[in-house]
Specification:
Length: about 375
């Protein structure tokens, strides 16, 4: 029988892994570092302080990893004023997501070396710069150089070590304690690269810019141009297509790592498209009647009810067509995706207003972070 203390520790960690990433949009660097650390130590906590079997946790662990990275990407919509940095980070995010999806389908570990998670560390680099500088000082060449250095000198060795060689750093050091000096030397080398990269930046600003500007404190911007409004009012537009692509990739990944999923990838993609279009249609219907979401929480609750209702309808009618779903896993999946869709919709509006109205939608650098982000 599972002890109560074990369950308390287990659920405390799981809830923390769900809630801490939600701090990333408002506190980007502390939030992402806390999520990264918790992801690294959660199973160690279980091993040290509980007697729980962890076999069933592996799938949910991977799902929560993808969830946390998705929230991290969405926070760039909300906060990043340097448009070229945003576009580069978006590419790195989807590049990794595609790689993970392919890996989960074919289970070839070298794929994770080909599709490294450069996105995460590039995000940390940008937010570290934002602590002391306005990110508009980051030119295209500096951003590309930063991404390349992270890719080659941090992520490739890490991905090889973890996924190809499947080595454990702690065991490696225990086998030969002098190996710790190799890690220290490499860390000094990485710090040297970081210094070389930022050595020519202008003088720092006073204090630390840890917190992103709250949405309520965002400046009131001019109305969107008519062509942008018309694009957003279309039921199928670029943002809807991106949401379908994003959620479909997440769905494929979740389907491979969560137990009991019986849908094919095509069925998942079609279901995701239906969910996204229905959610978008509902938002458009409300908008045309002059009603708008008062808060992210309100939108999330209403959309969750709608999507959970759709899931229950699927669960009711599928047996008549010799189909079925794992209701528990589906509800978990739908709640996570509803949250992601909600944040995407809200933050894309802020992203569009910041960059369209500031007139930098095609530039490499954008306006100052403290004044433009929201």
């Amino acid at each position: 029988m599972v002890e109560t203390s074990d369950l308390v520790i287990f659920w405390a960690v799981v809830i923390a892994r769900f809630l801490i990433p939600l701090s990333i949009p408002r506190y980007p660097l502390p939030g992402v570092l806390a999520s990264l650390i918790l992801d690294a130590v959660d199973q160690t906590i279980f091993q040290l302080f509980t007697n729980l079997p962890l076999e069933g946790y592996q799938g949910y662990d991977k799902a929560l990893d993808i969830y946390y990275l998705s929230i991290t990407y969405l926070s760039t919509l909300r906060n990043w004023s340097n448009l070229y940095a945003f576009k580069l980070d978006r590419f790195l995010f989807y590049y990794r997501l595609v790689g993970v999806a392919i890996f989960e389908l074919v289970h070839l570990r070298p794929l994770l070396l080909i599709f490294p998670n450069t996105f995460e560390y590039f995000f940390i680099f940008y937010e570290t710069i934002r602590l002391k500088w306005d990110p508009k000082v980051l030119t295209k060449s500096k951003l590309i150089t930063a991404a390349a250095l992270i890719w080659v000198f941090i992520k490739l060795p890490q991905e090889y070590w973890i996924h190809v060689a499947q080595m454990d750093t702690t065991d490696w050091i225990k086998a030969n304690p002098s190996n710790a000096f190799i890690l220290i030397a490499y860390a000094i080398f990485i710090l040297g690269l970081a210094w070389w990269l930022i050595r020519d930046l202008p003088p720092t600003r006073p204090g630390l810019q840890i917190e992103a500007l709250p949405v309520a404190g965002a400046p009131v911007l001019a109305p969107l141009p008519e062509e942008v409004k018309k694009e957003r009012e279309r039921l199928i537009n670029k943002q809807v297509l991106e949401k379908i692509a994003l959620i479909s990739l997440l769905g494929i990944i979740f389907a491979q790592i969560l137990p009991g999923v019986r849908a094919t990838n095509l069925q998942l993609a079609i279901s995701v498209a239906v969910f996204v279009v229905i959610n978008t249609a509902l938002s458009h219907w409300l908008s045309r009647r002059g009603r708008h979401w008062k808060s992210i929480m309100q939108e999330f609750i209403v959309m969750s009810i709608v999507n959970l209702g759709l899931v229950l309808l699927f669960d009711f009618f599928l047996p008549a067509y010799d189909g079925s779903i794992n209701l528990e896993n589906t509800l978990f999946f739908v709640l996570l995706l509803t949250l992601i869709i909600t944040l995407y919709d809200r933050y894309w509006q802020l992203h569009t207003r910041n960059h369209v109205n500031s007139g930098n939608s095609g530039s490499g650098n954008s306006g100052g972070e403290g004044e433009k982000s929201s």
